[in-house]
Description:
- The protein has one domain: P-loop containing nucleotide triphosphate hydrolases (Rossmann fold, 3-Layer(aba) Sandwich).
- The strands form two sheets. A six-stranded mixed β-sheet has the order 6-7-8-3-9-10, with helices on both faces.
- The protein has helices spanning 43-50, 72-75, 93-103, 109-122, 138-150, 168-183, 195-201, 219-224, 229-238, and strands spanning 3-14, 17-28, 32-36, 58-63, 66-67, 78-81, 156-160, 187-191, 204-209, 212-217.
- By secondary structure, the chain is an alpha/beta fold.
- It contains nine helices and ten strands.
Amino acid sequence: MQTLLKVENLYKSFGDIEVLHNINFEINKGDIVVIIGPSGSGKSTFLRCLNFLEKPTNGKILLNEKEMKDNLELHKKIGMVFQSFNLFSNLTVLENITLAPIKTKQLSEKEAQNEAMKLLRMIGLEDKKDVYPDNLSGGQKQRVAIIRSLIMNPEIMLFDEPTSALDPEMIEEVLTLMKEVAQKGMTMVIVTHELDFANDIANKVVFMDEGKIVETGTPTEIFKNPKTERLKEFLSKIK
């Protein structure tokens, strides 16, 4: 398997508070990695360090064997979907999707619009192209946010609790789209509390607690045969 992203001895502190402690992890091309753990365990900070939205205090992150550091070209290869959508409210759906590829000169305006419409058709929202985000449902906003990342043709997609801000009936449409993206071979790292979804989609599950990776394994190993008492305790409370 080709190692796509490698994390070596990663630490992250905010002042005197150490949030991540000596994280070592590898992600292969095509992996669907789901990160679980209690609130405050460092999951979202870990995700934000992977594309340098948070700069690590110590350690290395390598993409295709090249160290990330402040390399903007490498940063562009890692897409991010946030729990709060982060769409620009003053731009239409089409403008939100095409802004980054046009600004970075990855696509011409016409190419970006053609690609955006193709993606909007894929999620059944082509009729919303001229609508502003405030007039979309939460599920629609999150699906637009996902294809806004996809249009940049990233090598890895990061999802930070993408369904946590959604009403229950809207969660399924977002999870369905994520499954479709995974089936097309996209490498994904997902922080989520949706354990059934994790069991269905992941080939690796990571359990974090107190800024450390406590246990890693397949969904069966993590959910059916947890090794550590801490993971057993966590799963019993979630279930």
